[in-house]
Amino acid sequence: MAQPMVNSCCRCFSLRSGSIASGVLGIILSIISIILIFTVRIDFKTILMDWLPQNVVKIIYALNLVMTILISLLMIMGVVKKNHYFMMPWVVLGLMLAIGLLISVIYNAVVYYIDGFVLGGTLWLVVGLITVVIYVYMWIVVYSYFVSVKNENDRGRYSKQPYRR
């Protein structure tokens, strides 16, 4: 049986509360991002497919954010119902997003440095790495609750022997 990595969220909240907060925050940030994608004039760039038209890139980002909302809703439902199967997609996606976020932060900081924007690159690196650390911590909270629920479901909710005379 795997052990949870942490026993509480921020040392004062339960793993359950931290997991729900992570899901709700993911939904809120995704909705805000979708609104910003279609209302603010930003020139989106991709690392590998820089030939795609801006509208296509915006739609791809928006679809990814919609999927994040759906997976976050599924994770919240898993937390409420204590069903680790509902939480699993968020745990897997969260780990991939953490890796992608780290790569994105480093890539963008390097681009800023190459273009001669030392202050921009440094700010991007510092703020980005702080964001990565917070994101990874929240992933650890959800993963820890996932492990706890999985362990509980594997052994059964009531693992003690019934009382016998």
From TrEMBL:
Keyword terms, alphabetized: Membrane, Transmembrane, Transmembrane helix
TM stretches of this protein: 20-39, 59-80, 87-110, 122-147
Superkingdom of the organism of origin: Eukaryota
Name of the protein described by the UniProt record: MARVEL domain-containing protein
